[in-house]
Amino acid sequence: MVTEMKSREIALIGIMLALSLMLNVSPLKVPTQWGMTIDLVAIPVVVVYLLLGYTSSLISLALLFVGLSIVSPASWLGASMKFFATLCVILGMEIAKKLTNFNPERKRLIAFILSAYLISIAIRIPLMVGLNYYYALPIWLGIPREQVIPKIEEWFHIPFWLVIAIPNAIQNAMDVIGGILISLPVIRALPHILE
Questions:
Q1: The pTM is what?
Q2: Are the beta carbons of 38 and 170 closer than 8 angstroms?
Q3: CATH number at residue 188
Q4: Beta strands in 34-173 (DSSP E)
Q5: Domains: count for the chain
Q6: E strands of the chain, at which residues?
Q7: Most buried in the list 9, 53, 57, 174, measured by CB within 10 Å?
Q8: Contacts by residues 31-35 (CB-CB < 8 Å, ≥ 24 positions apart)
Q9: Alpha-carbon gap, residue 5 to 57, rounded angstroms
C-alpha cells in the first residue's frame, strides 16, 4: 500500500511538473506593463499541494525550479523568482488550511480561499519587493542596486513597491483560485486519489 501511494504521488508530481513546464513555454500568458508576465505555471504546483499535501508540493516546487532553469527564457534567475513567489502561495495555503480547518467536504471554501490569498500575499509582496531590489533587478538590468528604485520609478511613474506588488497580487489570485478550481472537482469526484 505504501509503495502504491508513493508511485501515485511520483506520477502525479511528474505529470504536474510536465504541465508547468509546458505552460511556461506556451503562449498562455499575459505580459503586464510592469514587466512581469501573468501565467499559469504555478497552478499545477498548487494542485499538487491540494491533492498530495505540503511536502509533495515542496518537492514539486524544487523540481519546477530545475525545469524552469533549463527551459525558461528567463533562465535560473526567473526560475528562482517563480520558486520564491510560488513558495509564498504554498505557505499561505498551508497557514490558511490550519486557521480555517479547511476540508474539501466542508463548506469553508470561501474562508479558505480568502485566507489563503491574503496570507500568501502578505508574505509574497514584501519578499518579492526585497528580492527584486536586492537580487533580481540588479542582475537582470545590469545596474547597481542603488539605481534600481530610481530607474523603475522613472520607467513606470509609480512607486517601486507598487510596480512589484500589483502584478504579484494578480498572479497570486490566479495561482490560488486556479489551483482550487482545478483541484476541488477532482477531490470530490475521486476521493480515493487522496487515500
A1: 0.91
A2: yes
A3: 1.10.1760.20
A4: 37-39
A5: 1
A6: 29-31, 37-39
A7: 57
A8: 32/166, 32/167, 32/170, 33/156, 34/156, 34/163, 34/164, 34/166, 34/167, 35/163
A9: 15
Find the domain containing 136 and state its range.
2-194
CA-based nearest residue to 148, from 171, 125, 129? 129
Cα angle at 167 between 166 and 170, to 5 degrees?
90
Q: Whose CA is closest to 194, among 68, 52, 73, 83?
A: 52
Residue 115 contacts by C-beta under 8 Å, 6 or more apart in sequence? 92, 95, 96, 99, 100
Can you give the pLDDT of all 195 residues of the chain as single tens digits? 444 558 889 999 999 999 999 999 998 889 888 778 899 999 999 999 999 999 999 999 999 999 999 998 889 999 999 999 999 999 999 999 999 988 766 677 889 999 999 999 999 999 999 999 999 999 999 999 999 999 999 999 999 999 999 999 999 999 999 999 998 888 777 766 555
Cell (9 digits) for 131 = 528580492
Look at the block and give the residue holding cell 527564457: 73
